[in-house]
Amino acid sequence: MGVVITVAPTGPVATKADNPHLPTSPEEIAEAVADAYRAGASVAHIHLRDEHQRPTADLDTARRTMDLIRARCPVLIQLSTGVGLGVPFEERERLVELRPRMATLNPCSMSFGDGEFRNPPDKVRRLAARMRELGVKPELEIYDTGHLDACLTLWKEGLLAEPLQFSLVLGVRGGMAATADNLLTMVRRLPPGAIWQVIAIGRHNLPLTAMGLALGGNARAGLEDTLHLRKDELAPGNRPLVDRAVELARGLDLPLAGVEETERLLGLPD
Ligand code: KMH
Ligand code: ZN
């Protein structure tokens, strides 16, 4: 069974002022994704920005970005429905109508850095149901222990198809801290058969991504999660971060999953 590498080229917060290599236009994002695909990524987690680099759920921007990516490579597109803290849930959830192969599902509201990430239970349930209807595979974003319980409730309600696919997010201010203990606790609590990856933010990215791979998880890499390649050294693009994740997997003698294997592993509907 191969390791799934997801590239997350652009997140909801940083701008080119933080790292000039951050891709923000649809063309730049598509180029970064194609480069990551060539390096071994089989999934691309996508946030969109407007012309002022602000997070947006604009459907035309999303469509254009997806088309540009598809024209370049067969990577599996996962749209973020997290989008950005200021964007209303009603705009965020519309992105799944574009029927990406996957999309994120953030199960709970929380503090997020200095902001507030709003995911009210009734709207989360509605989005989960719509994703199931459309055959869009949810990636369940777990920032704290209770978020796992919220997902298990959705599962029991029949709103999530198996296998469940989790991201264990460590190091967001407002969520669980990026510690080895927290990662182990979460991995032990996952239901049997769950697929998972680590999302480790900032300086914790490297050690916790390595630990996740060693424990049998998948890996995510890119400027969404860390702007740095090393302490005090900005990453000169997404590719070096993806290369680093690929090298970690190779160092652990883990083969990479290509697109078709990833489709099978995640049980993606056609
Ligand atoms: N930005 C990460 C901390 C999403 O986009 O829906 C979590 C994330 C969630 O990637
Ligand atoms: Zn994201």
UniProtKB/TrEMBL annotation:
Question: Which UniProt key words apply to this protein?
Answer: Metal-binding, Transferase, Zinc
Identify the InterPro entries for this entry: Aldolase_TIM, BKACE
Q: Which cofactors are named for this entry? A: Zn(2+)
Report TM segments: none
Q: Which PANTHER family does this one have?
A: 3-KETO-5-AMINOHEXANOATE CLEAVAGE ENZYME (PTHR37418:SF2), 3-KETO-5-AMINOHEXANOATE CLEAVAGE ENZYME-RELATED (PTHR37418)
Put simply, this protein is called: 3-keto-5-aminohexanoate cleavage protein
